[in-house]
Amino acid sequence: MQNPFVTHKKSAWAAAIAGAMVLALILFLVLFDWNMLRPLVAREITAKTGRAASIDGDLKVHLFSWTPSAEIEGVTLKNPPWADRELMFGAKQISVSVSLGRLLRGQIVIPQLKLVEPVLNLERDSKGRASWELGNKAGTPNGNKQPSKIPTIQRLLIQDGKLQVTDQIRKLRFGGSVVAVQQAGEGDASAFKVRAKGSLNGKPFRLDANGGALLDLTPDKPYEFSMHVTAADINLDSRITVPKPFDLSSLDVKFVLNGNDLADVFYLTGLALPNTPPYRLSAVVRVSGTTYRVDDLSGKLGSSDLGGKVVVETSGARPKLTATIASHNLKMVDLASTLGGQAGKPESLSATKAAVSKRGAAAIDKSQGMLLPDADLQVNRVRGMDADVTYTAVSVDMPKLPMKNVSFHVLLDDGVISLDPLSFILDQGSFSGSVRIDARRDIPESAIDMRMSDVNLAQFKTAKMTEPPLSGKLAGRVKVHGTGSSIHKFAAGADGGVSLIVPGGEVNQALAELTGINVTRGLGLLLTKNDAKTAIRCGVVDFQAQKGTLGAKTVFVDTTDVLITGRGDINLNTEALNLSLRGEPKKLRFTRIRAPITVKGTLEHPSVGIDAGKLAEQGAVATALGALLTPFAAVIAFVDPGLAKNKDCAASVAQAGEPVSE
Questions:
Q1: Which of 14, 188, 238, 510 is deepest in the core (most CB within 10 A)?
Q2: What would the pLDDT profile of 115-133 be if each residue is shown by its tens digit?
Q3: Dihedrals phi, psi of 48, to nearest 5 degrees
């Protein structure tokens, strides 16, 4: 039988030895010089981050507490070798404590985190390497990276923080200060404050964040804070809820955003959004991992309303934006900026309506007197994201053009933009087709293929007209391709063709006679406001584009009484017009002028007149008639035998209807 006294004696010795070991461990931990571990800690940080780390000050650890803490001085973390600034992160002092009770329950709660004079330098170069991409020495994108899960911090103090950000992809430079302070009032919605200021893209930037007290914050209690950001004309007000602080993979955000041009939001988000007139948007965003879901998007771009849903996925090589957007009423003038026009930017959103009315219906660069916009496509932005966007406008307001609906489907994939289909529905007829822009090179390569179908010419007339000058169905095709970073540069070197066909219809007889020009009959009809019609047997306008010059290949309108033919060209680089129209009567006319009507000037400012040289060859000028009537009447009439023949309409229409050659 075992002796209990012996057993008790052994247990006492075991307890004494264990107690001695615990006491020795405690004494060791109390007396241990934690600075001896600085090289080991620095090596571990280097291995985890891929950045050379060092600890140049004291390392102090206080273990014997329900909130163990550590204090590190002189911490530095270097940038990759390619970066301009050597230091990525540095702090004079970092103090952190951990809740032992929460840790034993599997939760990390930090009662206090204090940063004294922290410095953070973040850089991204033109190759896409980013110093904040930790885990590898080069800073290349890791891909499929989930949002950070930051431990719950109940007290955050940042003293004299400095932040520098350089992003060559976004052409962004930001320098500012960061201060975070915890105030005492637990019921105060702004007990926690963050203030940051500096510059964004060379313009003033400020961020103000206010949140409730952090003292009683736990991982199971949602935390809300508000944030206000201003960057030049951009204003962002948001209310953010973190359901499980601070798991940033799950957020609910309500925001209101306004500014002068939505494209400038690229500097905040990295998304390549189109140029727009002044805007105001609001939405609810729900963040789930790498997916950002935007619900209840609504607002205005210029005077046009906007609404829909957007999803942004950031897990791939590039962020992808998928959206379904609609407008109840689109004002076409609001598309001027999107097409590259210099629409001008009013100082405030209240000035939007007045500014829109001054711009006119065309996207025009007034500074250069050009009709075709010359704003360059930002190819670096386009390459930085993918998109799949469907847009529909139910009602369209466009002066002088009766339009009912606009819709398009945009795909952006690895630097290639496709608009297919792109559709404009008129009251009678449609204009639809596709556009492809390959922006994978420095100079984009583009192709346009658009068709007009069943466009009734009778719908085009001014308010002063009792009857339309033309009627009949118009069909046509524009098929061109070329290179250029803007619409103007593309057109200036484009190849392809433009074809318009009118298989039949009617034209105001006065217009047909004037093209002749039959002075007594044509002017007489105009002066008496006679709306007599003459039949259009057929009409063909066929231009061939070569290196930016549209040359008239076939131009004629065959009416019952007059055959109108045209010639000349349009230089899309200078936008100069050099066109002429000549009418050949089919019947005897005693007041016939052989001088052609000319169309000179530019696309922006065309000038219609009569070829003075040809006119002078015919004889004297009827000055009295010209003074009393119009420059078109200032001509001498001559007898014309009327030898023009009818065109073979079927053959001409078939030939012009063939696909435009590449």
A1: 510
A2: 999 999 999 988 888 998 8
A3: -75, -35
Identity of residue 556: F
347-401: pLDDT as tens digits: 333 333 333 333 333 333 443 467 888 888 888 888 889 999 999 998 888 877 7
Write phi, then psi, for 316 (nearest 5 degrees). Answer: -85, -170
Residue 168 in tokens: 């060559």
Please tell me the distance from the alpha carbon of residue 222 to that of residue 213, in angstroms, as a whole number. 12
Tokens representing 73 are: 């001085």
- Do 432 and 454 touch, CB atoms closer than 8 A? no
CB atoms inside a 10 Å sphere around CB 477: 22
- 421 prior amide bond cis, ω within 30: yes
* Short-list 583, 596, 593, CA closest to 620: 593
The secondary structure element, H or E, covering residue 320 is strand 320-331
**Among 187-196, 461-470, 566-575, 631-640, whose mean pLDDT is lowest?**
631-640
Neighbouring-strand partners of residue 165: 122, 174
615-657, pLDDT tens digit by residue? 444 443 333 333 333 333 332 222 233 344 556 666 665 665 5
Identity (one letter) of the amino acid at 378? Q
Looking at the DSSP bridge assignments, the partners of residue 577 are: 570
CA distance 212 to 225: 7
| Count of C-beta atoms within a 10 Å radius of residue 598 | 19
Dihedral of alpha carbons 360, 365, 369, 371, sign: negative
Q: Are strands 576-585 and 606-610 parallel, antiparallel or unpaired?
A: unpaired
On whether the CB atoms of residues 625 and 633 are closer than 8 A, the answer is yes
- Closest C-alpha among 297, 360, 302 to residue 330: 302
* Mean pLDDT value across the chain: 78
- The H or E element that residue 291 is part of is strand 291-301
Q: How far is CA 241 from CA 137, 221, 250, 293, 335, in A?
A: 35, 11, 9, 15, 35
Return the structure tokens found at 61: 């650890």
Is the pTM of the predicted complex or chain greater than 0.85? no
What is the end-to-end Cα distance of the chain in Å, rounded?
109
Cβ within 8 Å of residue 159, ≥6 positions away: 114, 115, 116, 117, 179
Q: In the beta sheet, which residues pair with residue 408?
A: 391, 422
Interatomic CA distance for residues 205 and 197, integer angstroms: 6
- What Å distances lie between residue 197 and 91, 235, 507, CA to CA? 19, 14, 66
